[in-house]
Structure formats: C-alpha cells, structure tokens
Design a protein that fits this description.
461 residues, mainly alpha, two-stranded antiparallel sheet, 15 helices
C-alpha cells in the first residue's frame, strides 16, 4: 500500500481536479450573462432575453456543483494536512475566510434574484444582480489565487510574515496582509486564471450552440450565441499568451527550479525552447525538437544569457522533471489549438458560413474539452512544478502531513470520495444534457433583427 503522504496528495489532487471543472465555467459564463442581458436591455430583442434565461439555468447547475465539490477540499486541511494548517493557517486562512465572506455570500445572495427574479424585480435591478453574481465569481477566484500564489511566492521572512515559536510549535504569522494579497505572483496568476475561465465559458457556449446548428434547432439563438462567445474566445485566447509569458517571467525570477523543469534545462547557460520532447531524469538529458536559445530570449530578450539549470538545484529540491515538462508543453499546445479554433470560428461567423460547415461545427461541439484539459494540465504543471515544497522555500510537502491520520484511513476516504464524485459527475452530465436538449424558450420574437446583426458583424455572404 502507498504511504500516507502519497495517498493524501492523490486525494487532494482528485478533489481539486474535480472541483476545478466548475469554477472556470461559472466565471466565464457569468461574464457572458452580463453581456447577453446587457444586449437585451439595449435592444429589447426577446432573443437576448431568452438567451440569458437559458444560460442562467446552465449557470445555476454549474454553480451548485461548484459549491458541493468545493467544501470538501477545505476539510482536508484539518484532516490530512493539519501540520500545514497549524504552521501557516494564520496566513493561508485569511484569504480563504475573505473568499467566503466577501465573494461567496455576494455571489450566492444575488443568485436568487438572477434565477427567480425575472418577473419580480425591474429589468435594471435584475441586470445589477447579474453583474453582482459575475463579479462575485471573479472575486472568489481572486482570494483563492491569493492563497495559492502565496504558497508559490511567500516572500521574505520578516517582511510579509515572521515565524513564532520553535520546533513543533513554530508557526508563521502575517506581518502585512496586503503584502500577502499582492505577493509577487498574484497578478500574473490571477490574470492567467481569469482569462482561462473566460475561454472555458466561451467554449461552453460555442459547443452547445454548434450542437443546435447541427441538429437544426434554435438556429437564430445558436448563431447569436456564437457571435457573442467567439469574440470573447478570440480576445481571451490571445490574452492567455500575454499572461502566460508574464507568469513565466515571474517563475524564472522566483521559482528557477520550476522553469528549468518546464523545459528540461539541466546545465546553467543559454536555454533552448522545446516544442516537443522527453526528459531522461537519470541521465539529466532532454531529447526533442527545440529552438536554440529561445527560452533565454523569452526570459531575458537575449538568446545568449544564462538560465539557471537543474544541476544547480539540490536534488532533494527538484520537482519530478518529466511530468512537469510534459504537462507544460501539452498545456501550451492546447492553448495554441484554442487560438486557432477561435479564429476559424470568428472568420466563419463573420462570413455567415458556420451553419454550412458541419465538420467544423462537430469540432466546436467537442472543443469544450480543450479548455478543461488545459485548465487541469496547467495546474499539474504549476503544482507539481512547485514540489517538493508545499510553501516554496519554507515548508516541504512531506513535513506538512497530519501526524495522526494513517494510510488506511486516507485510502478509505479516497475511495468514498471517488465514488461520490463519480455519481455527482454522472448526475451533472444527465441534468446538463436535459437542459441542453430542452433548449431555450421559443417565442415569435426569437429573431435577431438584420440591423443588430449588421451592427456587430456587418453584412457578409
């Protein structure tokens, strides 16, 4: 049987990965709801009202799943990772508490008006509720990213925090709350995560709308939804390149071992950028197709400048290199595929030719898997790349485990969580499938006017 540390890490990874299916969709879809309802208020076109009502139903299902799966994660801090919680709970717990007080209650409070208030409050009041729900979902991401970013770049002892006590009684305490909030990696990681969430929400709308066009159902609804979502997809997929580059610059400065693992870079010196490859960790060699000096150029704007290699990092402070290398490169490849699909969809929507290209519509239907895969694999690259540290440079993962929970207990709970999550996912897919097949409400005014379509895309045949 694997030891308690391995099982605890698998359990936390499983619960986080399953939970993280839902927040990116709710953040991205929430933002799209603001756009859709705003267009209804501006044009008074029933198409946009019914569009908003349909996606609100999908949003509420996703939100419920996110809440149900998110609570479980925090319990593990007190069970499997109690040593970690005691040592850094004063710091890590602050943004988690802020997330619950300032974000979750804001989002869930206005959600009732969003879902049930259509005929009970004024249109502008309902629109404000939609904005607050969207803002709450983003604010929730802010505090979670703050907590996680502090683990990646905690700052210097004596500035952001200090250590109180000694030995087993030692713990970290906050000196400057705002220094924790604006730690060196917060902004880069937040912008990267939020743009990824926008892409996920946009591709959800693109996928469902493409399905309707294939089935020749709700076609005006589908075409209008695509034209809104594809613009967001194009803008945020390009934004991902910018935020990803900025984030990598931060990794180069604050987590050199992670950056070296991203590219399988062992010898300090000019660093190559691999397009695809494989790392032999025993020999310390990386094989594959590469662009010589490109990593140095991207980090320093000089292909001859050195980048710290893994051979200058103590062996017990290196992450599992090949896992990180593969995860990082798969994430980048998926990101490029998302940009390509987004631009093709934009071009076809601009030319009003989407509904006649069934092959591309089928690609759009399954394309929802791409941002989800990128989200999951990106977190693997970030979190495994931080190892062996649970708080970079301060506390190792092996030292953060609870001292009283044994492997058998963790294995039992892991099996139970896996069964419950499997059932929840089946239920989610079943309910989502029902909502999609039922579709939006049909009315006699479900036609976008010629002038509105022309305003957004022009008349193209």
């Amino acid at each position: 049987m694997p030891d308690a540390e391995i099982l605890a890490r698998i359990q936390f990874a499983t619960t986080v990965a399953f939970h993280y299916i839902f927040p990116p969709m709710s953040i991205g879809l929430g933002f799209l709801l603001v756009i859709m309802e705003g267009m209804y208020l501006k044009t008074k076109n029933k198409l946009y009202e019914n569009m908003t009502k349909f996606w609100v139903k999908v949003f509420s299902l996703i939100f419920a799943m996110g809440v149900a799966t998110g609570i479980v994660m925090e319990f593990q801090f007190g069970t499997n990772w109690s040593t970690y919680s005691r040592y850094v709970g004063d710091i890590f717990g602050s943004p988690l508490a802020a997330e619950g007080i300032f974000a979750f209650f804001l989002e869930s409070g206005f959600l009732a008006i969003l879902v049930f208030g259509w005929d009970k409050v004024k249109p502008r009041t309902h629109f404000i509720a939609t904005i607050m729900v969207s803002f709450g979902s983003m604010l929730s991401a802010v505090w979670i990213i703050v907590a996680n970013s502090w683990q990646q770049t905690p700052g210097k002892i004596g500035e952001t925090f200090h250590i109180v006590g000694e030995g087993v009684n030692a713990r970290a305490e906050i000196l400057d709350f705002w220094a924790v909030v604006f730690n060196p990696s917060t902004i880069d990681r937040l912008s990267h995560v939020l743009s990824a969430a926008m892409i996920t929400g946009a591709f959800l709308v693109l996928s469902v709308s493409a399905y309707y066009l294939i089935k020749k159902r709700h076609q005006e609804f589908a075409k209008a939804s695509i034209k809104i979502a594809v613009i967001l997809a194009v803008v945020t997929s390009l934004l991902q390149l910018t935020t990803g580059h900025s984030s990598a610059d931060g990794v180069a400065e604050h987590q050199p071992a992670k950056l070296a693992a991203f590219e399988g870079h062992y010898e300090t010196g000019p660093a190559d950028l691999y397009l695809i490859g494989w790392v032999n960790e025993e020999s310390g060699e990386t094989y594959g197709i590469k662009i010589p000096g490109m990593l140095s150029f991207l980090v320093h704007w000089d292909s001859e400048k050195p980048v710290t290699g893994l051979n200058d990092i103590p062996i017990d402070e290196r992450p599992p290199v090949n896992i990180v290398f593969q995860a990082y490169h798969i994430m980048v490849a998926i990101g490029m595929a998302i940009i390509l699909i987004s631009f093709i969809a934009l071009f076809m929507a601009y030319k009003n030719k989407l509904e006649t290209n069934r092959w591309f519509l089928k690609i759009l239907v399954v394309s929802i898997l791409l941002p989800h895969a990128a989200n999951q694999i990106g977190w693997i690259a970030a979190e495994v790349g931080r190892q062996p540290w649970i708080v970079y440079g301060l506390l190792k993962t092996q030292d953060a485990l609870s001292k009283v929970v044994n492997a058998e207990q963790i294995l039992f709970s892991l099996v139970m969580f896996s069964l419950v999550y499997t059932l929840l996912f089946i239920l989610f897919i079943f309910l989502l499938d029902r909502k999609i097949k039922h579709g939006p409400e049909e009315t006699g005014t479900m036609e976008a006017t010629y002038s509105e379509q022309k305003t957004v895309f022009g008349n193209r045949n």
